[in-house]
């Protein structure tokens, strides 16, 4: 945990939205900060379904805010960073990036080769089994197998290079013989700086401006170990889960109100009924004005009070 | 979906996907009475309402099942690059969940497995097949059908010809070199959004059959003539699904697409011309950074709109940007004289008698049928839907952003029938239920869509009501979660209908009284 506490999650701000692209970051905030957010991308392995989606993960503004407040993440203006880095790229970053890509391409190539070899081997085994071994067929079948093995050996030899050396003449020549598959990496990691300097208060300040009014309630729920997802599915501000939504059903459907805000009785009845109909109870809460400063006990509750309503159905 | 030639199971084709990303509503924005959608309905019938209620979509995915279906015999290392063909929707099922934590190790293990599986599945790197190596072509010049180049400023100064679209023949027929001034006798092409196009495709792949557009009528000396240019959402969608290798150019467009083929061979002479001399591949992150922008930015698309676009594309719909609204010449007179049902209703009821200021509504007298009594009971004049739309233009965000077609064999990007659906995209947090002055122009921007002829009669009143006289879909996006609603103008007055939600889909026909009441609410 100590090591992971130092991890800084890069939150990409793109056109006012907050995205996370690194799978390790996604898992990290899911494990350690109770943020699961929403996967929004098309799953490249299976792109014609909407059930399982892929990176990037879209964070709500309050989730991004929470990570920044906890010092676990920083917000990067993705467009500016990319334009700046892409247009004024020095040779070393560029070669590092290209080397990174080339490495991935080689890995992919190796996987494909292995697979091909396996399929071939299976094919030949089948043929062998079907036909009693005749000397000529045996000769042809044994021949390709060592060839693939040597290729594997080559690429295996290539990969353990710890630091990518400048592309040598021989390696480029070799690649020309064997066209490598192209790859699209998920993150542009080597291009971008690992961590922006802590002196980026401007970006943090601008998150403050966009933080919705229900940040206190969100923070309260998060501090109690609840996971939240956007509430659109059930008609509230959040759906609230007692743990990782991988394992648990949502318990609550949460709405945030202002402390002195008049809440229409009909709204309570509506939401209470709605929550009960989807087997959730309706939770609503608000922060006492000047909350965390005045009553901020050690429980992390700040001045937030929450209530639950269930439809009695009498 | 015509895009899919290699990696998808036909059983995943549009109708069989029954849950959109987590919305309890149905991704199919049409009524189940549609005969063409019979398959979809059959699939939907497998789901009990209970399933739909408990469907928490993205949040409840069990990646273990998915990972298992993807990697029947693969090792971890392979999974990063390899996709397995033939994963059917049936094998992608959600796992069991618990009510709450009971602190057992079994539970913790299950959770850890889910996370591990998610790590594996999402750790995939998009791989593009190696370009076909040709004799005498260097790696950089090898024809790479999957490659696209990001040229945001190329069409910046372009002016779309006319309001209807540029004149010109088909994609390849534009060898005039004159410019795009309207040539009479040419077929009208759909509006091109040429200024918005930022990614040029290197070759023609399967993707370019449904996406992208070649800009015709360009001078011969312009490089990359006849190449397909993609809109930002198309490019990003293709990158996401692993069908496009997006590159950042280091050279000008003219150098990447040399005018004559021999030039390629000459530059190739420089032996060490690495494959990254012209540019280099961009990551998914970079693609998002470059292609997602605020509303109204040229060459970008807002994240919400992109999410809706890709959601619909994943379902198999054909989606195009709606052309900019233009004043329609009011074709009131050209309308055929056939009276639709609604018009008939209207004519029946619009002859409102004059009521005296006091006294009973129904004048004493002898009545031989109910119709004349009802006519006297009608106090408020009923709105008569008119085929000519209101003159006001829709305001953001309640404007039509996408035209949607159900997937069909003969649909092409240049030639297609009128869209099946009209869609607006709104943000859940930044907008509220549209006011009458917002929804009326929105509905006015869609063509009149009288219901099916078989919906006549008292039993189908609810179907008619739901369909309305005009209707429009509104996609509500809440941080990646999308819900589709249908707003239908029944008899002209706008009414809100949540599309195919459980209550409405399962609700018995409430009868004429109820529906009339609803319609009257929308009047005036």
From TrEMBL, chain A:
Gene3D superfamilies assigned: 3.40.1350.10
Family matches, as CDD domains: tRNA-intron_lyase_C (cd22363)
Lineage top rank: taxon: Eukaryota
Annotated ranges, domain tRNA intron endonuclease catalytic: 215-286
TSEN34 N-terminal domain residues: 9-77
Record GO biological process: tRNA-type intron splice site recognition and cleavage
Catalytic residue positions: 241, 249, 280
Protein name per the record: tRNA-splicing endonuclease subunit Sen34
UniProtKB/TrEMBL annotation, chain B:
Start and end residues of each stretch annotated as Disordered: 1-42
Ranges for domain tRNA-splicing endonuclease subunit Sen54 N-terminal: 195-248
GO process terms (BP): tRNA-type intron splice site recognition and cleavage
GO cellular component, one term: tRNA-intron endonuclease complex
Keyword tRNA processing: yes
Methyltransferase recorded as keyword: no
Pfam families xrefs: tRNA_int_end_N2
UniProt cross-references to InterPro entries, sorted A to Z: tRNA_splic_suSen54, tRNA_splic_suSen54_N
Keywords tagged on the record: tRNA processing
Family: Belongs to the SEN54 family.
Record's protein name: tRNA-splicing endonuclease subunit Sen54 N-terminal domain-containing protein
The species this protein was found in: Parathielavia hyrcaniae
């Amino acid at each position: 945990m100590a090591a992971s506490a130092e991890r800084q999650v890069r939150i990409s701000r793109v056109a006012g939205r907050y995205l996370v692209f690194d799978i390790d970051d996604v898992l990290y905030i899911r494990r350690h900060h109770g943020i699961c957010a929403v996967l929004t991308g098309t799953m490249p392995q299976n792109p014609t379904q909407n059930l399982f989606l892929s990176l990037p993960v879209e964070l709500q503004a309050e989730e991004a805010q929470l990570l920044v407040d906890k010092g676990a993440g920083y917000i990067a203006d993705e467009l500016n960073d990319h334009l700046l880095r892409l247009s004024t790229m020095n040779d070393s970053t560029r070669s590092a990036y290209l080397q990174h890509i080339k490495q991935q391409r080689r890995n992919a190539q190796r996987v494909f080769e292995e697979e091909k070899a396996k399929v071939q081997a299976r094919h030949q085994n089948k043929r062998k089994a079907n036909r009693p071994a005749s000397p000529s067929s045996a000769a042809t079948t044994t021949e390709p197998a060592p060839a693939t093995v040597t290729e594997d050996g080559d690429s295996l030899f290539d990969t353990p290079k710890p630091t990518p050396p400048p592309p040598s003449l021989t390696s480029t020549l070799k690649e020309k013989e064997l066209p490598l598959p192209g790859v699209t990496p998920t993150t542009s990691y080597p291009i971008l700086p690992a961590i922006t300097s802590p002196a980026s208060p401007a970006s943090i300040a601008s998150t403050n401006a966009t933080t919705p009014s229900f940040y206190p309630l969100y923070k309260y729920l998060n501090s109690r170990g609840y996971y939240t997802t956007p509430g659109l599915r059930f008609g509230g501000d959040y759906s609230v889960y007692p743990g990782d939504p991988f394992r648990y059903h949502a318990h609550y459907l949460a709405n945030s109100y202002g402390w002195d805000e008049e809440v229409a009785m009909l709204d309570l009845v509506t939401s209470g009924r709605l929550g009960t109909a989807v087997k959730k109870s309706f939770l609503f809460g608000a922060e006492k004005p000047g909350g965390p400063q005045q009553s901020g006990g050690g429980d992390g509750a700040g001045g937030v009070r929450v209530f639950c309503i269930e439809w009695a159905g009498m | 979906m015509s895009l899919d030639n290699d990696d998808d199971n036909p059983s995943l084709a549009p109708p069989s996907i029954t849950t959109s990303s987590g919305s309890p509503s149905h991704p199919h924005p049409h009524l189940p009475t549609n005969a063409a959608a019979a398959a979809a309905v059959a699939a939907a019938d497998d789901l009990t309402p209970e399933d739909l209620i408990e469907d928490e979509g993205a949040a409840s995915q069990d990646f273990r099942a998915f990972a298992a279906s993807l990697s029947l015999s693969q090792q971890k290392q392979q999974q990063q690059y390899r996709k397995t063909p033939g994963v059917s929707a049936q094998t992608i099922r959600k796992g069991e969940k618990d009510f709450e934590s009971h602190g057992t190790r079994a539970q913790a293990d299950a959770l850890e497995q889910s996370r591990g599986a998610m790590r594996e599945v999402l750790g995939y790197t998009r791989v593009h097949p190696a370009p076909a190596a040709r004799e005498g072509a260097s790696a950089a010049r090898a024809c790479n059908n999957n490659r696209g180049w990001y040229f945001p400023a190329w069409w910046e100064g372009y002016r779309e010809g006319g309001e209807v679209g540029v004149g010109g023949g088909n994609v390849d027929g534009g060898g005039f070199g004159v410019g795009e001034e309207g040539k009479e006798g040419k077929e009208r092409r759909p509006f091109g959004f040429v200024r918005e196009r930022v990614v040029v495709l290197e070759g023609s792949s399967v993707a370019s059959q449904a996406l992208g557009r070649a800009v015709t009528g360009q001078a011969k000396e312009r490089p990359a003539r006849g190449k397909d240019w993609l809109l930002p959402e198309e490019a990003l969608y293709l990158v996401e699904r692993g069908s496009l290798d997006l590159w950042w150019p280091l050279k000008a467009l003219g150098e990447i697409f040399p005018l004559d083929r021999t030039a390629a061979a000459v530059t190739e002479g420089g032996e060490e011309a690495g494959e990254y001399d012209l540019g280099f591949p961009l990551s998914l992150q970079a693609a998002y950074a470059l292609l997602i922008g605020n509303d109204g930015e040229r060459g970008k698309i807002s994240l919400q709109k992109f999410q809706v676009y890709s959601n619909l594309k994943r379902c198999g719909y054909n989606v195009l940007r709606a052309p900019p609204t233009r004043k329609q010449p009011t074709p009131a007179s050209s309308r055929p004289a056939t009276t639709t049902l609604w018009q008939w209703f209207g004519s029946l009821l619009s002859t409102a008698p004059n009521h005296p200021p006091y006294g009973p509504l129904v004048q004493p007298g002898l009545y031989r049928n109910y119709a004349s009594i009802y006519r006297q009971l009608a106090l408020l004049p009923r709105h008569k839907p008119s085929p000519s739309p209101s003159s006001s233009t829709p305001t953001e965000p309640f404007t039509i952003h996408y035209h949607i077609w159900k997937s069909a064999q003969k649909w092409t990007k240049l030639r297609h029938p009128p869209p099946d659906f009209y869609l607006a995209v709104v943000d859940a947090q930044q907008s509220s239920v549209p006011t009458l002055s917002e929804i009326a122009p929105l509905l006015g921007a869609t063509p009149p869509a009288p219901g099916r002829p078989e919906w006549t009669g008292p039993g189908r009143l609810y179907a008619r009501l739901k369909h309305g006289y005009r209707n429009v879909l509104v996609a509500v996006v809440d941080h990646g979660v999308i819900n589709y609603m249908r707003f239908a103008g029944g008899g002209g007055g706008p009414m809100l209908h949540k599309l195919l939600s459980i209550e409405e889909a399962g609700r018995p026909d409430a009868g004429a009284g109820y529906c009339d009441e609803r319609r009257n609410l929308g009047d005036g």
